[in-house]
């Protein structure tokens, strides 16, 4: 049996979603970079394995309710992702673009890093909106169709894109890009920390960026580490 240190970061978060908060605390990537074993990730980040193991145990013992995403049917999980995470992105981006533009106009003179943050966030917003549509119009309907076929004991013809691995690979690459962009924004903004004396719009923008990052990482984790691997496995059962 694998010990905690021998499990990957993604496996630990899949086992208990509360572990994501522990990895966030120590700056360990649990979504795009979740394939690393815990011990390797700790060495790379130069953090104490013992401290993380203690915090993971505390997370396990914490009685607060968390969703057990790994037990959900794939069609239910994909619907959850659309109704919760996609909806959050669609509602948040217009507000955040407005905040961003106002903050840059008023404060870029004193804080030149805002111009780069503006560029990166506009890029992220554009990429992610296109990304969501690909999932909603192509990949997720195919996953739901496979779930239905398995329940009914029927077989499916190959889709126009060949197999699930093709769009999954594209989605994972786009997740990597989104993760890189939000990490760069976090670095430029000192972890979304507004400067002393910042106006309320400045504070609201950085607070929303922090919230957006948390949602993005959970969103990517659910797809990369649960939905996509299970969809690829299911495809082998239901395709002709």
UniProtKB/TrEMBL annotation:
InterPro entries: Hemerythrin-like (IPR012312), RIC_family (IPR019903), ScdA-like_N_sf (IPR038062). Keywords: Cytoplasm, Iron, Metal-binding. It is found in: Cytoplasm. Pfam families: Hemerythrin (PF01814), ScdA_N (PF04405). The keyword Cytoplasm applies. One of its GO terms (cellular component) is cytoplasm. Residues 80-231 form the Hemerythrin-like domain. Gene3D superfamilies: nmb1532 protein domain like (1.20.120.520), SP0561-like (1.10.3910.10). GO terms for molecular function: metal ion binding. The keyword Lipoprotein does not apply. It comes from the Bacteria. This is Regulator of cell morphogenesis and NO signaling. It comes from Salegentibacter flavus. The lineage of its organism: Bacteria, Pseudomonadati, Bacteroidota, Flavobacteriia, Flavobacteriales.
């Amino acid at each position: 049996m694998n010990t905690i240190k021998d499990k990957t970061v993604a496996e630990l978060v899949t086992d208990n979603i509360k572990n994501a908060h522990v990895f966030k605390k120590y700056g360990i990537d649990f979504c795009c970079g979740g394939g690393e074993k815990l011990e390797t990730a700790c060495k790379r980040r130069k953090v104490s394995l013992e401290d993380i193991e203690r915090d993971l145990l505390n997370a396990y013992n914490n009685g607060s309710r968390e969703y057990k995403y790994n037990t959900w049917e794939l069609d239910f999980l994909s619907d959850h992702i659309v109704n919760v995470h996609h909806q959050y992105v669609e509602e948040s981006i217009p507000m955040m673009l407005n905040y961003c533009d106002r903050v840059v106009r008023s404060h870029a003179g004193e804080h030149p890093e805002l111009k780069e943050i503006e560029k990166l966030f506009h890029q992220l917003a554009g990429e992610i909106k296109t990304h969501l549509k690909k999932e909603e119009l192509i990949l997720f309907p195919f996953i739901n169709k496979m779930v239905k076929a398995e329940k009914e004991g029927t077989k499916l013809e190959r889709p126009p894109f060949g197999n699930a691995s093709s769009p999954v690979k594209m989605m994972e690459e786009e997740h990597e890009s989104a993760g890189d962009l939000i990490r760069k924004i976090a670095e430029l903004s000192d972890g979304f920390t507004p400067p002393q004396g910042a106006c309320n719009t400045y504070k609201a923008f950085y607070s929303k960026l922090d919230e957006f990052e948390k949602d993005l990482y959970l969103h990517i984790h659910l797809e990369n580490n649960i939905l996509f691997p299970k969809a690829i496995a299911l495809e082998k059962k239901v395709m002709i």
